Amino acid sequence: MKEKELLVHQAIENKIYVIRGQKVMIDRDLANLYNIETKVFNQAVKRNIDRFPPDFMFELTDNEHN
To answer: CB neighbours of 56 closer than 8 A, spacing ≥ 6?
Structure first.
């Protein structure tokens, strides 16, 4: 793997969290990865919700968010 690819890979890995026993990425980090606003990312997911498995996303509680 080239050095730049390795850095990108590591940057993505650093955005993966374990919440409720699941490896997840936060919507703002995914939106940033695609260079779009979080609002736009979430709208695209909602418009295409049938393409995702039922456990694709969940909302964080206040404690999880903090």
So the answer is: 45
Encode burial over 16-45: b for 16+ CB neighbours within 10 A, e otherwise.
eeeeeeeebeebebbbeeeeeeeeebeeee
Phi, psi (deg, nearest 5) at residue 40 = -65, -40
Pairing of strands 22-25, 16-19: antiparallel
For residue 61, give the nearest of 16, 7, 2, 20 by alpha carbon: 20
Contact 29, 50 (CB under 8 A): no
What is the tens place of the pLDDT at every residue in 2-23? 887 878 888 899 999 999 999 9
pTM metric for this prediction: 0.77
